[in-house]
Automatic annotation (TrEMBL):
Gene3D superfamilies: Laminin (2.10.25.10). Keywords: Disulfide bond, EGF-like domain, Membrane, Repeat, Signal, Transmembrane, Transmembrane helix. It comes from Desmophyllum pertusum. PANTHER family: PA14 DOMAIN-CONTAINING PROTEIN, UROMODULIN-LIKE. The lineage of its organism: Eukaryota, Metazoa, Cnidaria, Anthozoa, Hexacorallia. Residues 60-98, 99-130 form the EGF-like domain. The chain crosses the membrane at residues 34-54. Disulfide bonds join 88-97. It holds the Pfam family EGF_CA. Coiled coil: none annotated. This is Nidogen-2.
Length: 130
């Protein structure tokens, strides 16, 4: 009677798969670290982009260049974030930027032998005859 052959299968192949799994797990850990790092970088970048938007930096309309302001004609328009201001030209004052009458106010620099004549935005001095 011939001996019965019994084939025993070793666990080598299974062990090999387990080793691959270990490497795979290690690889996944590295990948997870990279993904986490990219996530943190993305959040930082998004916060950097979002902060100016939240502050309104990118939502500002330049009323001065668009002509959508109500400054007096004798004023500079100065844009600001979310608003604008008007600054009277030199020689004009008040909320309507009206002419300053330097002669009437006595703030001219005309010589005592000259007449002061008010002009729009300024004044002029004219020497007395002689
Ligand atoms: Ca004047």
């Amino acid at each position: 009677m011939a001996p019965t052959k019994i084939t025993l299968q070793t666990n080598q192949e299974t062990d090999h798969e387990n080793m691959s799994d270990c490497k795979s797990i290690a690889g996944n850990a590295t990948t997870r670290n990279i993904v986490d790092l990219l996530l943190v970088i993305t959040i930082i970048v998004l916060l950097g982009v979002a902060a100016p938007i939240i502050r309104g930096d990118y939502c500002d309309i330049d009323e001065c260049t668009s002509g959508n302001h109500s400054c007096p004609t004798k004023a500079h328009c100065i844009n600001a974030i979310g608003s604008y201001t008007c600054e009277c030209f030199h020689g004009y004052h008040g909320s309507q930027c009206l002419d300053v009458d330097e002669c009437k106010l006595g703030i001219h620099t005309c010589d005592e032998h000259a007449n002061c004549t008010n002009t729009m935005g300024s004044y002029k001095c004219t020497c007395h005859v002689g």
